[in-house]
Amino acid sequence: LKYISSLGEEVKWSHYLAQERYQEQLVQNPTQAPARKPRGSKCRAPTLALPGEELCLVCGDKASGYHYNALTCEGCKGFFRRSITRRAVYYCKFGQTCDIDMYMRRKCQHCRLEKCMRIGMRAELVIPEEQCRMKREAKLRQRSNTRDGAELPSPSSSDLPSQVACDSTAVEHDLLPETSELISRITSTSQQAALIRDEAMASLSVNSATHEHGPIFVQKYSFKMQSSPCSSAFQQLAELTILEAQHVHEIVRQLPGFSRLCEEDRRILQKASKTEILMLRSARKYDVAERCLYLGHDRYSFR
DNA sequence: TACGAAGATATGACCTCG
DNA sequence: CCGAGGTCATATCTTCGT
Fold first, then answer.
1. Nearest amino-acid residue to C1, taking CA and C1'
2. What pLDDT, in 10s, does the model give residues A208-248?
3. Which of A154, A174, A180, A265 is the most buried (most CB within 10 A)?
4. pLDDT of A125 higher than 90
5. CB proximity A257–strand B (7 Å threshold)
6. Which PANTHER family is this protein grouped with (predicted)?
């Protein structure tokens, strides 16, 4: 026994056996037939339409209802949804003239999708993946809330990268004790050095505030080299940068294990990393919205 | 070239939900 | 009850080693 496809291919009847067995069982003993059709038994012999039974307009299988504006089976519904959500682009190997039936629907995705469109399935009725994701998350949150009353992070926070979204206490739970201790030592070193630096920066700002071209002037003028008043602004900026560099030097010097290195290695490490560290620190102190750099108590605008 | 194993991907029947 | 998306067992395809 064999089924001849629309391409004239002979299709082995064994492909259809799983479904056939199910149909037989259904006919012989409707009460004890399996509750479900065999899953994945996708190669089925074309079923004759029972009187009054509606057929899929794409492949002729038994329709399960209107999906995306057209009468289709579950297979074509799922295929259309997947194709749209994935923005799939298919290629036809047979000259784009495939006659889509229950066999050919699996053989040519391109013509199947074409036919879906032709019979009126509408891509705009497929809910975008992003919207589905948000709905899914909202549902999960709702379930979680009803279960233990605890509130999950808002969708906006869950969208953030994990390293930003996680608070430090949550992260610490996964750390080894020695790692936690190392982090706390580095943090306290940085904080102590920051106190000294802030005092130095504050005094620099106070001193320069009495100067003709103090911090207020710096804020007012653009960050350009040509005007002479800016030279004092640059002088102040340079002094602040030196303070930052000293701050970095102080932190690095006090890092656990750093003192155990030989003088030459310490010097190389300091020299090689200082520029990158200063760049990173500057990036942290730059306010994108205000387009200005915060150093000490001062604000440097870039226009 | 043929074959089989393993992994990746597609399918579709059934489910839940609004 | 209808029609969305979700789930997951199964089919099919692809890759790789022999």
1. A65
2. 444 333 333 334 333 333 444 555 666 666 676 677 777 77
3. A180
4. yes
5. no
6. BILE ACID RECEPTOR-RELATED (PTHR24082:SF507), NUCLEAR HORMONE RECEPTOR (PTHR24082)
CA-to-CA distance for A27 and A34, rounded, in angstroms? Answer: 12
Which nucleotides in chain B have some atom under 7 angstroms from a protein Cβ? 10-15, 17-18
- How far does chain A reach from its first CA to its final CA, in angstroms? 81
- The residue ranges of every structural domain in chain A are 53-126, 180-206+215-220+231-301
Which residues 107-166 on A are within 7 A of strand B at the CB atom? Answer: 109, 139
- Span CA (A303) to C1' (C6), Å: 52
What is the 8-class DSSP label of residue A201?
H
Which residue has the closest alpha carbon to C5 C1'?
A132
> How large is the angle between the packed helices A109-118 and A74-85, nearest 10 degrees?
100
Highest mean pLDDT among A25-34, A265-274, A288-297: A265-274
Q: Please provide the CATH number assigned to the domain covering A53-126.
A: 3.30.50.10
Which of A96-110, A120-134, A240-254 bottoms out in mean pLDDT, i.e. has the lowest?
A: A240-254
Nucleic strand B near CB of residue A42 (< 7 Å):
yes
The per-residue pLDDT for range A174-188, each reduced to its tens digit, is 555 666 666 666 677
Q: Which nucleotides of C are covered by protein (CB under 7 A)?
A: 2-12
Q: Are A42 and A26 in contact (CB under 8 A)?
A: no
Residue A252 has a CB neighbour count (10 Å cut-off) of: 17
Mean pLDDT of A65-93: 93
Find the Å distance, CA of residue A247 to C1' of nucleotide C14.
57
- The angle subtended at Cα A94 by Cα A92 and Cα A95, nearest 5°, is 80
pTM over 0.85: no
pLDDT value for A265: 74
Interatomic CA–C1' length for residue A135 and nucleotide B12, angstroms: 24
